[in-house]
Amino acid sequence: MPVNDIAGAWKSFGWNVVETNGNSIEELLDAFQSSESGKPTVVIAHTTKGKGLPSIEGKTGWHHARLTEEQYQTLSAELEGTI
Asked: How far apart (Å, rounded) are the C-alpha atoms in residues 39 and 34?
């Protein structure tokens, strides 16, 4: 959900802000290691809903959807690359 300048809000409270690609494990690990002496750190991870599943990627309706057994089987096959 869009939030107006969340990084700026944290910075205004004196926090160290690290923004990163939340779909990248490597970038997240780097972000978790970031710190600035004497300041708390917040990590803002920008993500894509359904990343890696072409049939649902970026579709907001799937943010809270419950899968049927058929949908589960189809999405599992997508993840395994068999579709």
From this structure: 11
In terms of domains, do 16 and 33 share one?
Answer: yes
Q: Are residues 55 and 68 in the same domain?
A: yes
Strands of 22-82, DSSP E:
41-46
Half-sphere exposure of 75 (CA within 13 A, CB side): 15
55 and 82 in a common domain: yes
Please return the burial class of 38, using the count of CB atoms within 10 Å of its CB with bins 0-12, 13-18 and 19+: exposed
| pLDDT tens profile 7-28 | 999 999 999 999 999 999 999 9
Number of domains in the chain: 2
Place 46 in a pLDDT band, splitting at 50, 70 and 90.
very high
